[in-house]
Each structure stands twice: as C-alpha cells, then as structure tokens.
Amino acid sequence: MRTRKKKFDCVELQHRGGLAIYEATKGMTREEELAYWARRTAELRLEQEKLKRRRAGSRAKPG
C-alpha cells in the first residue's frame, strides 16, 4: 500500500505550539506566567473582536 504525505498534521501543529509556549514561559515565576497568560488572552480577545467586526462589515449590504 502506498502512503501519502499529509498536507496538514494536527498533532505536529499541537506539538510545535506546545514547544513554543514552553520556550516562552520556561524560567518564569508563577506570577510572570500568570501575567503572560493574561496578556495572551487579552491579545486573543482583541483579535477575535477585529475578526467579528470585519465579518459583520463584509456582510453589510451596500446602499
């Protein structure tokens, strides 16, 4: 049986993401890590709001 190369590997993506977070947070104190997650959460919420507004704007009918 022939195997195909995956175009997208979800597990590999998760591993890369986990490693990036580990590298960003290693050596942080508990308080620094909590601040890191609070900041990243705030950034994510801002991005989500931008996407919502962009989608709402593209759905608005001209005229």
What can you see in these coordinates?
The structure is a single chain. The chain has a domain at 25-63. The radius of gyration is 19 Å and the shape is flat. By secondary structure, it is an all-alpha fold. It has 2 helices and no strands.
- Tell me about the largest β-sheet: none
User: Between the first and last Cα atoms, what is the distance in angstroms?
Assistant: 58 Å
Low-confidence stretches: none
Radius of gyration: 19 Å
Q: What order do the SSEs take from the amino end to the carboxyl end, as H and E?
A: HH
Taken from the alpha-carbon principal axes, the silhouette is: flat
Structural class: mainly alpha
Tell me the number of strands: 0
> What do the pLDDT scores average to?
92
**Beta-strand residue percentage:** under 5%
Q: What's the tally of helices? A: 2
Residue share in helix: over 70%
Quick take:
With 63 residues, the protein is an all-alpha fold. The chain contains two helices and no strands.
What distinguishing features does this structure have?
single chain; 63 residues; mainly alpha; 0% strand; flat
What is the strand and helix layout of this fold?
Layout: H1 10-25, H2 30-59
